[in-house]
Specification:
One of its GO terms (molecular function) is ATP binding. The protein has 459 residues and is α/β, with parallel strands linked by helices. The protein is 41% helix and 17% strand. The chain has 18 helices and 13 strands.
Length: 459
C-alpha cells in the first residue's frame, strides 16, 4: 500500500531540474525510502534498480571498474539496447559499495541524462565508520521522514478534512469548529500511530491499537538489531544503553553525564551522535543568538526528539486510554506537544538539513526559553508550543523585547488567530503581533511564515 507523500513533489522538482545532480536520499529505516522511489520510478520512461544487499547486484558492481562498465553491465543483465535519456537509476543500499559512492561524481559529469537516486540503511553511520564521504558539490541531499499529520489524514481517506484545514490556514482564518474538533481527535490517533508507513497501513486496514503497538515493537527491535551492522564499534553496550534509555529523555534537555546508569558522558555523547547519524533521534540545539546565523550555545544541553511519536510512546508504555482521553498538557507533562511540533517542523522541510534551535536567555537571573527559532527571509521568528489553548508567553515576550521584533508565533490546541497585543516589559510596553496556529497544522508554519512576515507593519 502506497500513501501519497509531500516528498513525491520533491522528487518531481529534482527530476525536472536542468542542473540535476545525483540525489542522496536520507532517512531512518522503514520510513518508506525505497517504496517512494519505486513509486516515482513507475512514472518515468525506464527505472533501473540495483539493490546492493542482493548478491547478484553487488557482484555486478564489484566486477566493474567504471561507470561505463556498470552501464554496459546493466544493459546486458536487463536486456537493454540502450539506456535512454531520462532513465531513473536507483542505487539502494549504496553503503555496501564505496566505489559506487565515488562514481556518483562521474554520473553527474559524464552522464547527466541519467537521473540517479542513492539510498541506504544506516548510510551516514556506515560511511563515517569507513572514512568515506560523498563527492562534494556533485550530489544533492534530501531527507524522508515519517508521514506528517496531514499525510496521515490523506492516508485515512480524509482528503476533504485535510484540504479544508489547509484552505482555512492559507486564508488566515479559523477553521469551522466541527473541523477543528475532528482534526484534534485525529491528531490523538496520530500521536498513537505515528508516521511510520507500516504502522499507518495497519491503522488504515484494521484500526486496532494493539496491532499498531506490535508493529512498533518489531520496528524497535529491528533498530536495535541494526547495531550489529555498525562496523568499527568494538563495544556495542554504550550504544545499546543509549537506545534503551532514550525513553527517559525525549523532549527534555539532555545531560550526557546522567543519560544512562553507569555510563560516562563521553560514551553517551558518542552513542547519541551515532543514533542521530542513523536518524533515530534529532538534537535540537540551544542558542542565545537572536539573529542569523544561529550558533549552538557552548556547554549547554540540547533537547532530544525521537524519530516518531508512536514509537516513542510505545517505548514509554503510554496507555491507549491516556492518549485518547487525557488533556494534551498532561501527556508527558506537556512535552508531547513540543515533540510533535518539532517532528512536524523537521518533516515539512525535506530539502533542508539545517538543525533546529531553541532560544535560551543569556541571563542566569532572568531565565527564558523559546521552544523553536525559525529562520526565514534573513530573520529569526520565535515559536512557542503550548499544550493548552491558553497559557503565559513570558519567554516569547522576552525574546521579542530583546530582539526588538514585533511578531511571534504560537502553536496550540486552539484555533487560528492573528492578534495585536500589549504587555508590560521593564516599565515600558511591548506591542506585538501574535499569530496562533492550531497545533495539528504545525507542518504549515514554514509556508505561513512568508505571508506573516510579508504583512508585518514594520518590515
Amino acid at each position: 500500500m502506497y500513501f501519497k507523500r509531500t516528498f513525491d513533489g520533491v522528487l518531481r522538482d529534482w527530476y525536472g531540474r536542468p542542473d540535476r545532480k545525483p540525489l542522496i536520499l536520507r532517512g531512518a529505516r522503514q520510513t518508506g525510502k525505497s517504496t517512494t522511489v519505486r513509486e516515482f520510478g513507475k512514472k518515468q520512461k525506464l527505472c533501473l534498480e540495483l539493490n546492493l544487499e542482493r548478491r547478484e547486484d553487488l557482484n555486478l558492481v564489484r566486477a566493474c571498474s567504471s561507470v561505463e562498465d556498470l552501464l554496459a553491465g546493466l544493459k546486458a543483465t536487463r536486456n537493454l539496447s540502450d539506456v535512454p535519456e531520462g532513465t531513473l537509476l536507483f542505487l539502494d543500499e549504496i553503503q555496501e559499495s564505496p566505489d559506487l559512492i565515488q562514481w556518483l561524481r562521474f554520473f553527474h559529469e559524464d552522464h547527466p541524462e541519467i537521473a540517479v537516486i542513492a539510498a541506504g540503511s544506516l548510510l551516514e553511520v556506515r560511511l563515517q565508520e569507513r572514512g568515506f564521504s560523498f563527492p562534494v558539490g556533485r550530489v544533492t541531499f534530501r531527507t524522508l521522514h515519517p508521514l506528517t499529520f496531514l499525510e496521515f489524514l490523506h492516508a485515512l481517506g480524509k482528503d476533504v478534512l485535510a484540504d479544508q484545514l489547509w484552505e482555512a490556514l492559507r486564508g488566515r482564518k479559523a477553521a469551522p469548529l466541527p473541523l477543528h474538533e475532528d482534526a484534534l481527535k485525529c491528531m490523538r490517533d496520530y500521536l498513537l500511530v505515528g508516521g511510520m508507513p507500516e504502522a499507518v497501513a495497519s491503522w488504515v486496514n484494521v484500526h486496532r491499537p494493539a496491532a499498531v503497538r506490535e508493529i512498533h515493537t518489531d520496528l524497535l527491535q529491528a533498530f536495535s538489531e541494526d547495531f550489529q551492522k555498525y562496523r568499527g564499534v568494538r563495544d556495542l553496550s554504550p550504544l545499546e544503553a543509549a537506545f534503551e534509555n532514550l525513553k527517559y529523555h525525549v523532549g527534555t534537555r539532555v545531560s550526557y553525564e546522567n543519560f544512562a546508569p553507569g555510563r560516562r558522558s563521553g560514551q553517551m555523547k558518542t552513542a547519541l551522535g551515532r543514533l542521530e547519524g542513523a536518524l533515530l533521534v534529532t538534537r535540537v540545539w540551544p542558542t542565545s543568538d537572536m539573529a542569523l546565523p544561529l550558533r549552538s550555545r557552548p556547554k549547554s544541553a540540547p533537547k532530544l526528539l525521537p524519530v516518531d511519536t508512536g514509537l516513542a510512546l510505545t517505548t514509554m508504555g503510554a496507555t491507549i486510554e491516556d492518549l485518547r482521553f487525557l488533556p494534551l498538557e498532561k501527556l508527558m507533562d506537556g512535552r508531547l506537544a513540543e515533540i510533535f511540533a518539532g517532528l512536524q517542523l523537521l518533516a515539512s522541510r525535506p530539502g533542508r538539513s539545517e538543525p533546529l534551535f531553541f532560544w535560551v536567555s543569556e541571563s542566569s537571573r532572568n531565565s527564558a526559553e523559546v521552544d523553536y527559532l525559525l529562520p526565514n527571509e534573513g530573520k529569526t521568528v520565535p515559536l512557542e508550543v503550548k499544550s493548552a489553548a491558553s497559557g503565559r508567553l513570558r519567554s516569547l515576550h522576552q525574546f521579542l523585547w530583546k530582539a526588538k521584533q514585533t511578531t511571534g508565533l504560537r502553536v496550540h490546541p486552539g484555533q487560528y488567530a492573528d492578534q495585536a497585543l500589549e504587555v508590560a516589559m521593564s516599565g515600558e510596553t511591548l506591542k506585538y503581533r501574535l499569530v496562533s496556529v492550531p497545533i495539528y497544522m504545525t507542518q504549515a508554519v514554514w509556508e505561513l511564515l512568508k505571508s506573516v512576515l510579508n504583512t508585518e507593519d514594520d518590515s
